[in-house]
């Protein structure tokens, strides 16, 4: 993911390095090229606009242009602005003191929610927590089966409940966690293929009933431009605290992943890249920016 963008940016930078001194025209040209590279990687156009405006203003500073290593300075500025775009500081998952702590996952169907729920449980298990997974997708029995299989694989208890009322299952799941001495509950909710009223209302109802300590939205990094619209819709209706960006191992353009913090104001907390239980990493904006710039 993002390899093409990375290659493009490296090409632009090596062009700048080859020039020695840089003129205002060189900077303008480089900014045009960076702008194109970001747009072609599917980064949201408003995000690109702000990014380029900020970067350009800093690069055109006389001190930058007249320094002995102007290209190096330009690269440093781009790196810094990219880190800013990605959220600047790490946003770790902090569990509250309430036991059990409740984490609710929301997102579209197919975004990778169930997989992420299991990965998060696995991660918590490694950190000496005793998680419980709750299957609240009452529309697709396969989703609960999938969660159960994943739970078995990693040795984490899964509560499925009975009936078709996700609010009831979520509430019972929390009681089950209390009874079975689990300290973190991860609620996997139902998604739809597109944002719809019923899904939002259901997520709101579960939220109201269980008062989660945090809500994480699972976002498929391969969705492209539409990612930000979906996330904005969830932010408005359900509100959430952070994002798990799934499928970062895919070969799509990935710009949606780069846009989400700026568009929704919500930080990326984890990136998920693969189907193995241990493929959920904490997200570090600075490391990601460095990786993109190569
Ligand atoms: P849900 O409908 O949101 O619960 O999505 P699932 O967890 O069922 O995931 C949908 C599909 O994406 C499944 O085939 C998963 O195996 C796959 N998937 C989930 N996360 C990742 C990931 O990080 N990388 C890859 N390559 N595939 C993933």
What is the fold's blueprint, element by element?
Blueprint: H1 3-17, H2 24-40, H3 45-59, H4 62-65, H5 70-85, E1 101-106, H6 113-126, E2 131-135, H7 141-154, E3 157-159, H8 166-179, E4 184-188, H9 197-210, E5 214-220, H10 226-237, E6 242-246, H11 255-264, E7 268-272, E8 280-282, H12 285-293
Parallel strand pairs: 1-4, 1-5, 2-3, 2-4, 5-6, 6-7
Antiparallel strand pairs: 7-8
Helix pairs in contact: 1-2, 2-3, 3-5, 5-12, 6-7, 8-9, 10-11
The protein binds guanosine-5'-diphosphate.
Task: Write up what this structure looks like.
The chain is 52% helix and 13% strand. Helix 1 (3-17) runs antiparallel to helix 2 and helix 2 runs antiparallel to helix 3. The radius of gyration is 21 Å and the shape is elongated. Strands 3-2-4-1-5-6-7-8 form an 8-stranded mixed sheet, with helices on both faces. The mean pLDDT is 94. It has 294 residues and is α/β, with parallel strands linked by helices. It has helices at residues 3-17, 24-40, 45-59, 62-65, 70-85, 113-126, 141-154, 166-179, 197-210, 226-237, 255-264, 285-293, and strands at residues 101-106, 131-135, 157-159, 184-188, 214-220, 242-246, 268-272, 280-282. Helix 10 (226-237) links the parallel strand 5 and strand 6 (242-246). It has 12 helices and 8 strands. The structure holds guanosine-5'-diphosphate. Residues 107, 109-115, 143, 146, 191, 246-247, 249-250, 272-275 line the site of guanosine-5'-diphosphate (GDP).
């Amino acid at each position: 993911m993002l390899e093409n963008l990375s290659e493009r940016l490296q090409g632009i930078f090596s062009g700048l390095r080859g020039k020695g001194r840089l003129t205002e025209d060189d900077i303008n040209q480089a900014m045009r090229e960076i702008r194109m590279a970001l747009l072609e990687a599917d980064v949201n156009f408003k995000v690109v606009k702000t990014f380029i405006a900020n970067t350009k203003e800093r690069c055109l500073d006389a001190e930058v242009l007249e320094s002995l290593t102007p290209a190096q300075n330009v690269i440093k500025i781009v790196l810094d602005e990219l880190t800013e775009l990605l959220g600047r500081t790490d946003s770790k998952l902090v569990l509250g003191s309430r036991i059990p702590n409740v984490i609710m996952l929301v997102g579209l169907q197919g975004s990778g929610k169930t997989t992420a729920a299991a990965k998060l449980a696995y991660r918590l298990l490694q950190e000496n927590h005793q998680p419980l997974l709750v299957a609240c997708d009452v529309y697709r029995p396969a989703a609960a089966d999938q969660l159960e299989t994943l739970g078995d694989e990693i040795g984490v208890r899964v509560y499925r409940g009975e009936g078709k009322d996700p609010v009831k299952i979520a509430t019972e799941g929390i009681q089950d966690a209390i009874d079975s001495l689990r300290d973190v509950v991860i609620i996997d909710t139902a998604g739809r293929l597109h944002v719809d009223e019923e899904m939002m209302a259901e997520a709101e109802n579960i939220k109201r009933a269980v008062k989660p300590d945090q809500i994480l939205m699972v976002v498929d990094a391969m969705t492209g431009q539409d990612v930000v619209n979906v996330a904005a819709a969830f932010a408005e209706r359900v509100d959430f605290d952070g994002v798990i960006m799934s499928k970062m191992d895919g070969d799509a353009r990935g710009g949606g992943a780069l846009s989400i913090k700026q568009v929704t104001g919500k930080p990326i907390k984890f990136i998920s890249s693969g189907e193995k239980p241990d493929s959920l990493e904490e997200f570090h904006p600075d490391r990601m920016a460095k990786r993109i710039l190569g």
